[in-house]
Amino acid sequence: MHQVKAKKYLGQHFLKDMGVARHIAESLTLDGPTAVLEIGPGMGVLTQFLLQNPLIDLTAVELDSESVIYLHEHYPDLKVIEADFLKMDLKSHFSDKFCIIGNFPYNISSQIFFKMLDNKDSIPCLAGMIQKEVAERIAAPAGSKTYGILSVLMQAYYKIEYLFTVGAHVFDPPPKVQSAVIRFTRNEVSQIDCNEQLFKTVVKTAFNQRRKTLRNSLKPIVESGHPMYADPLFDLRPERLDVAAFIDLTKRVEKALK
Question: What is the extent of the structural domain holding 55?
């Protein structure tokens, strides 16, 4: 029974603190028996605690073939999919709703959340460990310097909770950054009150030049000189707008485009 060597190109940092692993496993908010997908289980430090929960029907997705072999050896009853989560067709594996958990590779954590957003009606909750800076950004309120694209898009559909900070010493090898565990719980918004695709475009375009006012940053969508820009709203920078204000802004942009 061999140990898996962490691979830098996969962004692997194996969690070695059992207390932290247990705490992450207990962070999922489950209302009853639930399908759960663990992303990047590695050597199963988190997996072992998830398997102990009778409410969890666990599936793991792992890209590293060495880790897959290790998981088969140590957890023979575990369903393991050898694949890249970002390329997975989730609907072919889960016909009903499922939650996500993991000690996520920090180099793809934002992409994981964007994919989660694309499948938001199937994913009621997520709990996982990511880079502390990214966790703070997603959970940040409007008006904060760290508030940005992911903050707005995720907060539109999920309640975000920054649960706790994790030091680098609990990993092998230790990362150069601090980590944090974050939880997403689906809110009651089935559909936002505007064109969803345009909403994403407006948010991304506004924050692409976050130091500029909305009047300047939104020029790629609505040309300068349009009467829409006369409103004092466009004197603001994007970080001043909460989700509701971005929905209102999207409606204005849509009206201007027509």
Answer: 8-186
